[in-house]
TrEMBL record:
One of its GO terms (molecular function) is methyltransferase activity. InterPro entries: Methyltransf_25 (IPR041698), SAM-dependent_MTases_sf (IPR029063). This is SAM-dependent methyltransferase. It comes from Neolewinella aquimaris. The keyword Methyltransferase applies. Keywords: Methyltransferase, Transferase. The keyword Transmembrane helix does not apply.
């Protein structure tokens, strides 16, 4: 995806850390419900570090991502956090954490085999009483095509985007998202760039069975955010089986 590579320097104008304030607080409430004393957090697929910007006030964070460009973006707002290039399907830091957190980066996983591999990586990095918290964008049962838009302004440049998510083949395990970015820099003409991603989509039963296969018990937690009250937005908490 261009936004995670050559356009990464636009990330915080497209998706501002301030936009994640409420979201991160709700996540922490859910985490605290299941684990009272979280001191260390490993995030898989941390991207531009928007959740980390808020969660670092709660505990010590280690942030990992496949994209060096996105890690550089995150370092700019989270210089006190450890940043590592790593693949959530294969990484092994040879360290343990109280919490493994995966936000919407989990959507990049498009098949069940890789889903299990991610959960095995999470298990490998958890303390005996640690928990896994995953927040997918949607499940097969709750998915519906959608469009959204947004963007922000800086002193010398601005961006606006249109996002369109659709499912060309409901019988498979992927959906498509197309993006259009309008980018304006001071003294220059507006530029329009297209982008796209292919994301995984699985029913809740698959999440539950694959987590169980990796050694987790599972509970689903409703996430309520202002302006998204009508959305069926759900997090997944995995606890290690004895």
């Amino acid at each position: 995806m261009k936004l995670y590579d050559e356009l990464a320097h636009w990330w915080h104008l497209l998706s501002s850390p301030d936009d994640y304030r409420e979201e991160a607080e709700v996540y922490w409430q859910i985490i605290s419900k299941h684990q009272k004393d979280t001191k260390t957090l490993l995030e898989l697929g941390s991207g531009g570090g928007n959740n980390a910007f808020h969660l670092k006030k709660k505990c010590t964070l280690t942030l990992t991502d496949l994209s060096p460009s996105m890690l550089e973006v995150s370092k700019a707002i989270n210089p006190e956090c450890e940043h590592l290039i790593a693949d959530m399907r294969t990484m092994n830091l040879d360290r343990k954490f109280d919490l493994v957190f995966i936000h919407d980066a989990i959507m990049s996983i498009t098949n069940e085999s890789d889903l299990i591999r991610v959960f095995q990586v999470a298990k490998r990095h958890l303390n005996s009483r640690g928990i896994l918290f995953v927040v997918p964008d949607f499940f097969r049962e709750t998915y519906r095509p959608r469009t959204s838009h947004g963007g922000h302004d800086a002193e010398d440049r601005s961006i606006r985007y249109l996002e369109w998510t659709y499912d060309p083949d409901p019988s498979d395990s992927v959906v498509w998202t197309d993006y259009a970015y309008l980018m304006k820099e001071r003294g220059q003409e507006t530029v329009c760039i297209s982008d796209s991603t292919v994301d995984g989509i699985f029913p809740k039963s698959v999440w539950e069975s694959r987590l169980a296969e990796a050694g987790f018990s599972v509970s689903f937690e409703a996430i309520r955010l202002h302006g998204l009250e009508s959305e069926d937005y759900t997090g997944i908490v995995g606890k290690l089986l004895a």
